[in-house]
Amino acid sequence: MTIDYSNLPSDLVTLLPAPLHSLCQTEHYKRGTHLFHAGQIPKWMFFVLTGEVTLERIGSQGDNVVLQRTRHGFVSEASLQSPVYHCDAHVALEADVVCVPVSALLGSLRQDSAFALRWIGMCNREIRHLRLQCERMSLKTVQERLLHLIETEGQSGDYDIGSGLKTLASELGVTHEALYRTLALLEKAGRLQRASGKLSLK
């Protein structure tokens, strides 16, 4: 259904120019469904309000590789000027998503320089996030990658597990068995606590 801009999150209201607000639509997606598949033509930019959406590709071994995990924010901005989506957007946790029409978004970027600068700023923040991800993936051990994730993307030493440890393991580029072993070792050493869907450093 089409939603009034007053129901949009404040950061999206601030980012988007007013003429785009009334063009936004909100959709509710059940867990296990998809926002889009690789190869589809981009018609919408998707902004996750609640829940969790992962961007995934099939790896060389036939397994799903998690490229990005989003609980609040855009998941498809890299496809704005692409002829097709380059990965799948999988709803890992039941989600409410704002859909912004690509054609109108591109038109606003061409005509509104202030909006274009805000969009660039958002993309710059995403680049910094991806650099942290690349730094994390360069670490050799599962423990190093896990602690890096909690320290850089957690809040005061707490990290929300979200859709589960298997998704987290895929995001870290490790097997879920290796992640479980590492968690057990860290808990035994008193360095980490797992409770209420969170990982907390001690």
Structure description:
The protein has 202 residues and is of the alpha+beta class. It is built from seven helices and nine strands, in the order H-H-E-E-E-E-E-E-H-H-H-E-H-H-E-E. The strands form two sheets. Strands 1, 2, 3, 4, 5 and 6 form a six-stranded antiparallel beta sheet that branches. A three-stranded antiparallel beta sheet has the order 7-9-8. Strand 3 (44-58) and strand 4 form a beta hairpin. The longest helix is centred in the middle third of the chain and has 25 residues, at 113-137. It starts with 9 loop residues before the first helix and ends with a strand.
Quick overview:
This protein is 39% helix and 28% strand.
The helix count comes to 7
- Strand runs, count: 9
Succession of helices and strands: HHEEEEEEHHHEHHEE
- Going by helix content, strand content and strand pairing, the class is alpha+beta
User: How much helicity do the residues have?
Assistant: 25-40%
Mean pLDDT: 89
Which outline best applies? elongated
- Poorly predicted runs of 5 or more residues: 1-6
Cα Rg:
18 Å
Largest sheet: 6 strands, antiparallel
Distance between the termini: 45 Å
Name the beta content range: 25-35%
Give keywords:
alpha+beta; 6-stranded antiparallel sheet; disordered N terminus; 202 residues
Q: Could you give the topology of this structure?
A:
Blueprint: H1 10-15, H2 18-21, E1 25-29, E2 34-36, E3 44-58, E4 64-70, E5 73-74, E6 88-101, H3 102-111, H4 113-137, H5 142-153, E7 158-160, H6 165-172, H7 176-188, E8 192-195, E9 198-201
Antiparallel strand pairs: 1-6, 2-6, 3-4, 3-5, 3-6, 7-9, 8-9
Helix pairs in contact: 3-4, 4-5, 6-7
